[in-house]
Amino acid sequence: MGKIKMMVVGILSGFVNGLLGTGGGIVLVFALGRFLKEKEGKDIFAVTLTVTMSMSVVSAIVYGFNGGLELGTGIRYGIAAIPGGIIGACLLDKLKLETIKKVFGVLVLWVGLNMAGVI
Predict the structure, then answer these.
(1) Are 41 and 101 in contact (CB under 8 A)?
(2) Phi, psi (5° rounding) for residue 118?
(3) How far apart are the first and last CA of the chain?
C-alpha cells in the first residue's frame, strides 16, 4: 500500500473513530481489504484490532479533556470487555475467514440499521 493511501486511510479511520466513538475499525477493514490484496483476511482483522486500540485511546483522552468521558462507566465496560476480546482473538485463528466476514457483515448491518432507527 502506498504511503499516501496509508495516510488517507489512517486519517479517515481516526476521524470516524473520533467523531462517532467507534467505527474506525470498519473503515480500516474495508480499506485494507481493498488495498492489501497480498494479506490474508485474518491479518487485516488483526491489524485493525491493533490500530483501533490506539485510535480509541487517543479519542478517549480527547473526550476526557473535553468533559465528554464518564470515566467510571468507561472503566467498567472496558474491564468487562477484556474477556470478550481474549475470546474473540482466540477464535480469529480458529474460524474460517468466510465465517468471520459474514459475522462482521451482519454486525455492521445490524448496528447501521439500529443507529438509523430502522430496527
Answers:
(1) yes
(2) -75, -35
(3) 37
CB 44 within 8 A of CB 36: yes
Query: Dihedral of CA 97/1/23/77: which sign?
Result: positive
The per-residue pLDDT for range 77-93, each reduced to its tens digit, is 989 999 999 999 899 88
* Spatial separation of the C-alpha atoms in residues 60 and 65, rounded to whole Å: 9
For residues 113 and 16, what is the distance between their CA atoms, to the nearest angstrom?
Answer: 18
- Angle, CA 56 vertex, CA 25 and CA 6 arms, to 5°: 50
Q: Which three cell numbers stand for residue 42?
A: 485474518
Q: Could you give the CA distance from residue 92 to residue 100 in angstroms, rounded to a whole number?
A: 8
Whether the model clears a pTM of 0.90, i.e. scores above it, the answer is no
d(CA 92, CA 99): 10
| CA 38 to centroid of chain Cα atoms | 21
Cell of 101: 466476514
